[in-house]
Specification:
With 134 residues, this protein is an alpha+beta fold. The protein has 2 domains: 1-86, no CATH class; 88-134, no CATH class. It contains 3 helices and 7 strands. It has helices spanning 32-39, 73-81, 102-111; strands spanning 19-21, 29-30, 54-56, 89-91, 95-101, 116-122, 127-133. It has a 4-stranded antiparallel sheet with strand order 4-5-7-6. The chain has a 3-stranded antiparallel sheet with strand order 2-1-3. It is globular, with a radius of gyration of 15 Å. The chain starts with 18 loop residues before the first strand and ends with a strand. The structure holds zinc ion (ZN). Zinc ion (ZN) binds next to α1.
Length: 134
């Protein structure tokens, strides 16, 4: 479940990973691209989930966000399962992620089910996000 207010402050993007300032109040949420622009720093998930002073924004379901070092495992898993963006591809520390048109992605998954797994299915846009072990 993604909270309805989990949305980028700068571009209104929803359904993606968001970051917040490490200690900034009020909390401002930004998508990967806007975080990178805001921090004037490249965001590379293969290197780190932080970007300068921005850290993953993980809701605690009580209206606040977990502190960077106190996020429970299910919160980390929730954030990791969110896409960085809604198209294209990217890498994190262990895996490569790539969006496909639904049919092509599912066929590919059937052929490479040992190395890939669907992590998100967008039924409105009919596309699927596959994760590949790299
Ligand atoms: Zn944004």
């Amino acid at each position: 479940m993604i909270p309805p207010d989990y949305k980028c402050k700068d571009c209104d993007m929803q359904g993606v990973k968001l970051w917040r300032g490490y200690q900034s109040i009020p909390i401002e949420l930004r998508c990967g691209a806007c975080t990178s622009k805001h921090e004037n720093r490249t965001l590379d998930l293969a290197e780190s989930d932080q970007c300068a002073w921005s850290v993953p924004a993980i809701p605690d379901l009580q209206g606040a966000y977990w502190g960077y070092t106190s996020v429970p495992a299910e919160g980390v898993a929730w954030w990791k399962a969110l896409p960085l963006k809604l198209e294209g591809e990217w890498r994190d520390k262990n895996d490569t992620y790539r969006w496909y048109p639904y049919r092509i992605g599912m066929d590919l998954w059937l052929q490479e089910s040992k190395n890939s797994e669907p992590v998100r299915i967008d039924t409105r846009e009919m596309k699927v996000l596959l994760r590949f072990k790299s």
